[in-house]
Amino acid sequence: MAAAARSTDRPGALEITRKLAEICGRPFARFAGPADEVAGRAARWVAVPGGPHAAAEVLRLAAAHDLTVVPRGAGTKIDWGAAPAQVDIMLDTGRLAGVWHEPQGSGVAEIGAGTPLRAVQATLERTGRRLPVDAPSPGATLGGVLAADEAGPLRHRHGSPCAQLVGVRYLDADGELVSVGVPGTAQFGQAAPSARRGGSAAAGPGGGAAPGGASAVLGGAEVPGLDVARLLCGSQGGLGVLVSATMRVQAVPAGRVWVSRPVWTPLEVHDLVRAVLAARLDPAAVELDLPVPVALPRRRIPASHPSVAGRPDHPAVTGRPARPAAAGSLVVLLEGGPADVAERAGRLTALLGPEAVVNHAAPEWWGRYPFAPGDTALRIEVPINDLHAAVYALRDAAGTPVPVRGSAGIGAVHAALPGSLPPERVASILAAVRGVLLARQGRCVVVSAPAAVRRAVDLWGELPTLPCLRTAKAHLDPHHRLAPGRLPGGL
Question: Is the pTM of this model over 0.85?
Answer without folding.
Answer: no
